Amino acid sequence: MKQKVFGISGWKNSGKTTLTSALIRELSARGYRVSSVKHAHHNVDVDQQGTDSYKHRVAGASEVMLASSKRFALMHEIAEEDGEFELGELLEKMSEVDLILVEGFKSSEIPKIQTIRQVSLGNSGKEPINNIVAYATDMPKETELPVLDVDNVSLIADFIIDYMDLYVS
Question: pTM here?
Fold first, then answer.
């Protein structure tokens, strides 16, 4: 079964993380199994200097898995010459769920909602946001695409469920 993937994109401070987190809560409460992928524009380090797993990583381990009875985290080192993983490569590493919500990845070809908040209008960038299927905003927007109230998480969840043809398994 091919994973169902839907994106939330927008410019800095447009409410992407707030909306994505709220959608994860809403969809999970409705019985969907939801995972997420979050793009970061900076070095990501979930490990802390001085821990055993940090020592393994700086010693040269390609991957370090940190595991407990509650969760595990897999840290994979990427050689500078290899560059950043493509979204598709990252998605292949995910376990099967009902929906993967992707935050960021503006240039990816997955369907996505663009978040626009009046307070963040000055943060628009030059990078295009591809494959927008709807807008989530707190102001009027002239477009032929659906315009959803960014603060109405239930309505946005309904839109995604309909758009992605999701059914609780």
Answer: 0.85
